């Protein structure tokens, strides 16, 4: 894909070059003639024809001096770039960022694009822009390094004809429009994915007439160009959301930055699997080690002003600017949250490493200026997430050169962003939403759901406005600390919620002033004390012990590897436990360690999740009264219901991961405090998890939604808009979606495979027993009598899942033992369902079940 685009681009550049040549000749001839006429009229002075000077070529151009000097024709807007001899062959950094876009195109304000090294090379009368490969390392002492370029393709992004050449001054001038008005340096229009709906929103073709340079900002060490790319389409089927003014003409504003690489003696630090940093992957091609990794962690270049002091101010601190668009009442909370990280840096030997300033209202710089790290606020349509903390680095060293944090207003309001609420498919998946960057983060969404759950809880307890405000401020502080953590180089630690027991969390004196989890880089459930009088912090208000240790591992200045190893050896302390979302535990079947999970809390996640489900159920009884306001529609009540149902579903997901789960320990061989890498979850806990799922998700009375609530779940009409379907509450589908999500994990080929394999090393819950327990949970309570509507749905769904395990294309993914278990259970259900008991609906249902099973058994070969 990328290759063919590059090829097309190259072809386009060449064609343009060819076409423009005759025109230039004509122009030159005309000019010559004119000169001749003039010469004939006046007496000819004996003068050698003067060589063309740079000043002549750029006459009538505006000059932008900086790292690369640019000239812009004041009539046509044409852009020219001046390159000096010294710049040829040097490495520079290219970085792009979206100034403004549309969410459905995967480009939105502040999203970071490509970040790569390139060189400018001369080839006869042309210059080439060549992107460099940074994925491999060759020891320069090793003779193999002579063939370091073997089978590694460089990327020639563009080849431009030299317009003017001054060998004496060592200057060359090229036309730059093709570099910046096309997708030369980075791909902006996202590719379509296989299986993507043909009616999905798409950008049209890049329109070269409408695409234009908006601004050139030039500085000593970086040249920034703001470009408005316009994509046109003669007719569109899907014109996008209301944020797209005209689907046929869509603008994406991009900042391109060409940056001088810092030559500062920064010392790279290599990645260690026990602590979670973002990395640039580098493989050592001359190493003989089984792990020839030289993955560079992303971190700032912090150095002590006083290298001998135990704690010193840094030579250059990390300075954050609060954008002037930030609501005034939040600025203090934001500032304090950012500065919390200084607690971690102090343990790494730095005082005041992080500083916070406020962008003046009349600042002469834009928040998109890469020289400033800005905490930015927007209130945009269809926000992809509540917070996003990207950074850009030097891929040769891993040094972070700049960062921003994007925050969305809607996630701090009481407005549910409906398509993001649990049980309803998100309009944008993680991949297409931020398709060229791995820093995707949805902690804002998670925190908002928790905040709204907390609100329902507080309202039910008649809490004061002050108390409500305090809870929201804690949520905002946690969000800010989390996003700042990303910009310091830290990735997620979804295992950090293991820090305290449910009892400790429910003790306000114990928890006061402490972080609730080992790390703010987790996505946790809100801390709600069963006894309201003992309610402590709802969210973390300070960084956790893992955060402090991770900053030590990444930033403490060390003299040798031994000193660093001593810090890393502390990874086995329980409070330093770490597991990131590399396997994406959000999706059923992906997780293996149930402790690495989102939406959970405490070192007894099953107990805490049960507490959350019970709280949700209890609150359900009171929301009609608490969330119906005289003179208003039932919109707020409907939102509250969604939040409670969502929290219940999340808790069920957390519990499901224990079944077939395996705990992972990444301690090194012989490390103090380490255990074996894999330890299966105990039989007791697997059974406890299934019992909880049975009681709270599968049982006939699991969902006791008050009858007199459902007929009030009405959204406020807006014009002709009834959102994505008829307006009536679809309770059965909602419940079934939660149940399906859990079953998808329990019957996932990976889960069942692991149950079989882990029997070899300690798992005592074999797949046959488990499957039969699950079947009993779903059928036994009512198969001999009336089956209610929720259970009918669940039972049919489950039979269909068993069917998928033994027949059809999905069955290939299951191991033979799992298939046998599925067949056994289909027969078990068939035997039970033939009793002809119950009311007419139940009898019909049982016949349906039997027919499905009969047909399935016929298909099994
Ligand atoms: Zn995050």
From TrEMBL:
Classification via SUPFAM superfamilies: Metalloproteases ('zincins'), catalytic domain
Domain of life: Bacteria
Start and end residues of each EcxA zinc-binding domain: 468-782
Residue span(s) of domain DUF5117: 111-305
Keywords: Hydrolase, Metalloprotease, Protease
Full protein name: Zinc-dependent metalloprotease
Gene3D superfamilies found in the cross-reference section: Collagenase (Catalytic Domain)
Transmembrane segments: none
InterPro entries from the UniProt entry: DUF5117, EcxA_zinc-bd, MetalloPept_cat_dom_sf, Zn_MMP-like_bac
A GO MF label: metallopeptidase activity
Organism expressing this protein natively: Shivajiella indica
């Amino acid at each position: 894909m990328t290759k063919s685009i590059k090829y097309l681009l190259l072809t386009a550049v060449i064609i343009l070059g060819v076409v423009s040549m005759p025109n230039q000749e004509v122009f030159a001839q005309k000019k010559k003639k004119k000169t001749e006429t003039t010469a004939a009229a006046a007496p000819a002075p004996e003068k050698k024809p003067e060589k063309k000077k740079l000043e002549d070529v750029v006459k009538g151009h505006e000059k932008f001096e900086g790292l690369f000097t640019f000239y812009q024709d004041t009539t046509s807007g044409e852009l020219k770039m001046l390159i000096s001899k010294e710049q040829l062959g040097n490495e520079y950094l290219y970085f792009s960022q979206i100034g403004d876009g549309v969410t459905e195109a995967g480009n939105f304000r502040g999203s970071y694009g490509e970040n790569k090294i390139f060189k400018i090379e001369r080839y006869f009368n042309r210059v080439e822009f060549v992107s460099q490969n940074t994925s491999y390392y060759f020891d320069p002492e090793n003779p193999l390094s002579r063939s370091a370029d073997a089978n590694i393709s460089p990327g020639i992004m563009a080849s431009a004809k030299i317009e003017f050449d001054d060998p004496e001054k060592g200057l060359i001038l090229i036309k730059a429009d093709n570099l910046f008005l096309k997708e030369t340096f980075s791909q902006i229009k996202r590719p379509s994915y296989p299986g993507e709906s043909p009616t999905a929103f798409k950008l049209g073709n890049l329109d070269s007439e409408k695409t234009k340079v908006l601004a050139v900002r030039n500085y000593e060490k970086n040249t920034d160009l703001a470009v408005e790319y316009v994509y046109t389409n003669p007719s569109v089927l899907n014109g996008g959301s209301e944020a797209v003014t005209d689907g046929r003409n869509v603008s994406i504003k991009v900042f391109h930055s060409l940056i001088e690489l810092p030559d500062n003696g920064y010392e790279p630090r290599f990645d260690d699997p026990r602590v979670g940093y973002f990395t640039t992957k580098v493989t050592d091609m001359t190493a003989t080690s089984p792990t020839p990794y030289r993955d560079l962690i992303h971190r700032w270049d912090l150095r002590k002003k006083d290298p001998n002091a135990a704690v010193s101010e840094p030579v250059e601190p990390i300075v954050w600017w609060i954008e002037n668009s930030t609501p005034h009442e939040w600025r203090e909370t934001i500032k304090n949250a950012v500065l919390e990280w200084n607690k971690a840096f102090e343990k790494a030997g730095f005082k005041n490493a992080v500083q916070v300033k406020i962008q003046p209202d009349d600042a002469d710089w834009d928040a998109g200026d890469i020289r400033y790290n800005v905490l930015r606020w927007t209130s945009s349509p269809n926000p992809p997430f509540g917070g996003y903390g990207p950074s850009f680095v030097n891929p040769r060293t891993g040094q972070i050169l700049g960062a921003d944090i994007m925050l969305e207003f809607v996630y701090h309001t009481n407005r549910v962003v409906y398509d993001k609420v649990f049980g309803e498919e998100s309009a944008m998946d993680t991949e297409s939403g931020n398709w060229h960057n791995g820093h995707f983060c949805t902690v804002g969404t998670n925190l908002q759901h928790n905040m709204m759950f907390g609100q329902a809880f507080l309202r039910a307890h008649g809490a004061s406005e002050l108390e409500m405000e305090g809870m929201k401020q804690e949520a905002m502080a946690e969000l800010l600390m989390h996003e700042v953590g990303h910009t310091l180089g830290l990735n997620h630690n979804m295992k950090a919620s293991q820090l305290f027991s449910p009892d400790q969390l429910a003790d306000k004196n114990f928890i006061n002033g402490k972080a609730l989890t080992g790390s703010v880089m987790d996505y946790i459930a809100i801390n709600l004390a069963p006894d309201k009088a003992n309610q402590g912090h709802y969210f973390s208000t300070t960084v956790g012990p893992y955060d402090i240790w991770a900053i030590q591992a990444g930033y403490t200045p060390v003299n040798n590897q031994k000193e660093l190893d001593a810090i890393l050896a502390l990874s086995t302390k329980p409070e330093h436990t770490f597991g990131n979302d590399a396997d994406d535990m959000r999706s059923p079947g992906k997780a293996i360690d149930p402790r690495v999970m989102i939406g959970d809390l405490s070192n007894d996640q099953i107990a805490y999740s049960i507490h959350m489900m019970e709280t949700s159920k209890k609150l359900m009884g009171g929301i009609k009264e608490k969330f119906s306001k005289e003179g208003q529609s039932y919109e707020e009540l409907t939102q509250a219901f969604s939040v409670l149902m969502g929290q219940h579903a999340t808790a069920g997901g957390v519990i499901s991961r224990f079944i077939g789960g395996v705990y992972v320990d990444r301690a090194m061989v012989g490390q103090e405090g380490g255990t074996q890498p894999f330890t299966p979850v105990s039989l007791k806990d697997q059974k406890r998890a299934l019992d909880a799922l049975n009681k709270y998700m599968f049982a006939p009375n699991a969902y006791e939604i008050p009858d007199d609530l459902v007929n009030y779940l009405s959204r406020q009409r807006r014009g002709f808009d009834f959102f994505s379907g008829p307006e009536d509450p679809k309770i059965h589908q909602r419940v079934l979606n939660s149940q399906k999500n859990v079953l998808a994990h329990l019957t996932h080929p990976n889960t069942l495979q692991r149950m079989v394999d882990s029997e070899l090393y300690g798992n005592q819950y074999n797949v046959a027993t488990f499957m039969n327990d699950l079947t009993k949970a779903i059928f036994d309570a009512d198969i001999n009598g009336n089956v209610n509507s929720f259970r009918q749905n669940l039972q049919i769904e489950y039979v269909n899942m068993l069917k998928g395990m033994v027949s059809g294309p999905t069955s290939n993914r299951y191991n033979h033992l799992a298939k046998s278990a599925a067949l056994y259970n289909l027969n078990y259900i068939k035997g039970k369902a033939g009793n002809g008991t119950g009311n007419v609906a139940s009898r019909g249902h049982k016949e349906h079940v039997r027919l499905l099973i009969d047909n399935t058994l016929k298909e099994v070969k």
